[in-house]
Amino acid sequence: MSPVVTARPLTRAAFAPYGDVLDTDWTNHYPINAGRCERFHELARIETIGEDARAILSIFCGTPYDMPLTLTLVERHPLGSQAFMPMDGRPFLVVVCPDEDGRPGRPEAFVTAPGQGVNYHRNVWHGVLTPLGQPQNFIVADRGGSGNNLEEFTLDEPFTIALPKDMAHE
Ligand SMILES: NC(=O)N[C@@H](O)C(=O)O
Ligand code: NI
């Protein structure tokens, strides 16, 4: 059996080495539009580098994965950050790895709270978009432009990514 990594709830502190959490638990917020809207300001920055680099918005329509997940591949984007914000507010799985001399280290897994999104910093190893239980659409902010912005790495040995016990039935 491949080594098991159990996902834990996503928190800013735990995710800080990898990127930003997108939610309204954020002190930099203020009213706009005559008080009819609250702006939660600059949750993350969209980083883009390289030839004709630009920040772009896309919609990803994701197919769910069965859990526990057998993780065999991770990827990273050397030319830009990548943010995922669910359009339906349901939780999804986030898998990241520390970088160890250009190779991914042991994965860490998180389950988002309803309404949370993530922004992977540039060049951070991560699993591909992983909806849970049903198809899920996401607004994605990342980098467009020339050059190769996708580096994939097939793990020497797979990991089993499991949901926490209180979620495993979902
Ligand atoms: N390849 C692509 O656009 N998607 C991945 O980067 C991903 O993180 O899901
Ligand atoms: Ni990606």
Automatic annotation (TrEMBL):
Keywords: Hydrolase, Lyase, Purine metabolism. Pfam families: Ureidogly_lyase. It comes from the Bacteria. One of its GO terms (biological process) is purine nucleobase catabolic process. SUPFAM superfamilies: RmlC-like cupins. Pathway: Nitrogen metabolism; (S)-allantoin degradation. Its EC number is 4.3.2.3. It catalyses: (S)-ureidoglycolate = urea + glyoxylate. Homodimer. NCBIfam families: PRK13395.1. Catalyzes the catabolism of the allantoin degradation intermediate (S)-ureidoglycolate, generating urea and glyoxylate. Involved in the utilization of allantoin as nitrogen source. This is Ureidoglycolate lyase. It comes from Aureimonas altamirensis. The gene is allA.
